[in-house]
Amino acid sequence: MATERQIEANRRNAVKSTGPRSSAGKRRTRRNSYRHGLSVGAAGRPEQVERLARKIAGAGADAMVLEQARAIAQAQLDLTQIRRMRASLIQRMAEFGVLDTPDPLGTFRDIKRILKSIDRGLPWDLSVPPAPSMPSSEPDRTAEAVRRALPELLKLDRYERSAAARRDRAARLIVARRTR
Amino acid sequence: MTKAGQVSSALIPPSPLLLTESKDEFNLIRDNLNDQIKPRGIIEQMYVEDIAYLVWEILRLRRNKAAIINSAFRDALTEVVTQLLRNPGERNYQLKGNSEKLAREWFSDPDVKKQIAGLLREFNLDETAIEAEAFRKSADDLERIDRLMASSEARRDKALVCIAQYRGDFGALLRERSDRLVDGKVLKLEHAGSKERKPAA
Description:
The complex is a heterodimer of chains A (180) and B (201). By secondary structure, chain A is an all-alpha fold. Chain A is 66% helix and 0% strand. Chain B has one domain. Chain B is built from seven helices and no strands. The longest helix of chain B is centred in the last third of the chain and has 62 residues, at 139-200.
């Protein structure tokens, strides 16, 4: 456990470090804890969830039914969000041919390799290789985009299944509650 | 759509489509489902929207599957033609230019198509060999697409079952409540009738 002196020192140091100052640094750290946003889901839109839940529960619903209605609303909005992400991924893949732009200085190993080349006076290159070409016409372009995005689409499918299962469970519980 | 349906569609966000996809075609599928299922209440409407999206997704994946096999076909053709043309001791790169040219022309030149068919026959093969090679080349992608399709189909079927269950259970509940009401009325009527009949008796 930290001593009083250490805690005090930590506080002093924390005041000195106020995070990145440059706009590039701020941009980099802005999404540090953000991965895909799917786990946040409809929880980030409480008013929409509440409105939909009240409509599902109907007038005069008891607290238990309303709670299950909230679960249905949340899951339904999650489903829409996942589907929007799916469409957006395919669209982006169709536009650019890749989802991740390769960064020649993306890893510590890359930086080390370039620095080594500079040290040895060897030629080095920071240019990014072009993305593999995409078919120019439809429906081949979309099909190729879907093909390249398949690993991501399979991941999204897992989220979609789990959201649908949550909604179905809550719908069953509502009926069970009402038929009691 | 009914007024209630309009309220619900304002609450349930529309299914997102790709820019290249037709909203009208999607709406046609959803309208057909609405006609057949006739959703009652917002939960059933949610399920119908879901089923429409899943049907759309299955159609999209089927289209993509066919396009993926087609696009693998040219590479497969080059591969098979290279194999057919290669003499002992020859390297693939020595034949690549010629094979690619023949593979390109196969789609437009009937003579080239005949020439390749003749080559295939020499080795007791036919065009199925090219299709099989196209399938082999895209097998991993096709397997993934099949997994996505199976998942969408399972969820579509589950959504249909959920509507039936919801409707069944909820229908049973409504029937029970309406029966109670009717029973209550009947009791009252009988009561009233017996009251009326009493003096007569």
